[in-house]
């Protein structure tokens, strides 16, 4: 676990885009169906029932919160959230390592555009380090300058700590960053950190909020367009 990120020595740099901060599940990659399938397999293996409405409640949550929710729904207080997380992670990581990752439309192209523009990217995920390592095996070297996993923070999304930690690692100020998110929980975390959130909905709706722009698809963006959106936000 990390201590509270220290941004006291980080100085804002006008309206320049300093970094792009990416959620993983459902934003960079279309992996939410893998998690949902793992939930159904686990719950049904425990002799209980699960449904899509319950699955949608977990989108964007910390894994331990998701584990606790599952146990509450199925009435299995003899098990622990950590055990549930271990079971789900094992299933999803196996899927990621055994087949190509299903990237979201435009995600890899936008990552490449940031690289060409010299804008660093951070991967900020509720998923644990073991899953992120499986992801990096299928990404170009250097696609992400830093990463923050869910098991490396004390407080997960919607708390701002994951995004603040990424900014501290990069030496940038959140107000000079954009956050890409596909869930309300993650969008709240990015906004609480002080960043402009570009909400790209996938399985669940993201409500409107200050300092949040809804983008239909990552395929509509490149580094220049994102920088212009941030400049417009600063000038609003």
TrEMBL record:
Picking any one GO molecular function of the record gives: hydrolase activity
The record's annotation in Pfam families points to: Hydrolase
CDD domains from the UniProt entry: HAD_BPGM-like (cd07505)
What InterPro entries does the database record attribute to this sequence?
HAD-like_sf (IPR036412), HAD-SF_hydro_IA (IPR006439), HAD_sf (IPR023214), PGP-like_dom2 (IPR023198)
Gene3D superfamilies in UniProt? HAD superfamily/HAD-like, Putative phosphatase, domain 2
Protein keywords: Hydrolase
Output this protein's name.
Answer: HAD superfamily hydrolase (TIGR01509 family)
> The organism's lineage?
Bacteria, Bacillati, Actinomycetota, Actinomycetes, Propionibacteriales
């Amino acid at each position: 676990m990390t201590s509270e990120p220290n941004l006291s020595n980080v100085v804002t740099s006008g309206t320049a885009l300093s970094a792009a901060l990416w959620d993983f599940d459902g934003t960079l990659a279309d992996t939410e169906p893998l998690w949902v399938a793992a939930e159904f397999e686990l719950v049904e293996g425990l002799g209980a029932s699960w449904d899509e409405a319950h699955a949608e409640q977990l989108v964007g949550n910390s894994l331990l919160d998701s584990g606790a929710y599952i146990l509450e729904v199925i009435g299995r207080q003899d098990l622990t959230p950590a055990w549930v997380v271990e079971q789900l992670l094992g299933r999803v990581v196996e899927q990621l390592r055994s087949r190509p990752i299903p990237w979201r439309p435009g995600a890899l192209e936008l990552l490449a555009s940031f690289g060409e523009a010299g804008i660093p990217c951070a991967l900020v995920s509720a998923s644990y380090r073991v899953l992120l390592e499986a992801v990096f095996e299928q990404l170009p070297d250097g696609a992400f300058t830093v990463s923050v996993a869910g098991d490396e923070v004390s407080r997960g999304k919607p708390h701002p700590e994951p995004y603040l930690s990424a900014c501290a690692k990069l030496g940038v100020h959140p107000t000079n960053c954009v956050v890409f998110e596909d869930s309300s929980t993650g969008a709240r975390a990015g906004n609480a950190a002080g960043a402009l959130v570009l909400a790209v909905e996938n399985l669940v709706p993201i409500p409107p909020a200050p300092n949040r722009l809804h983008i239909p698809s990552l395929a509509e963006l490149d580094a220049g367009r994102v920088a212009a959106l941030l400049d417009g936000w600063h000038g609003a």
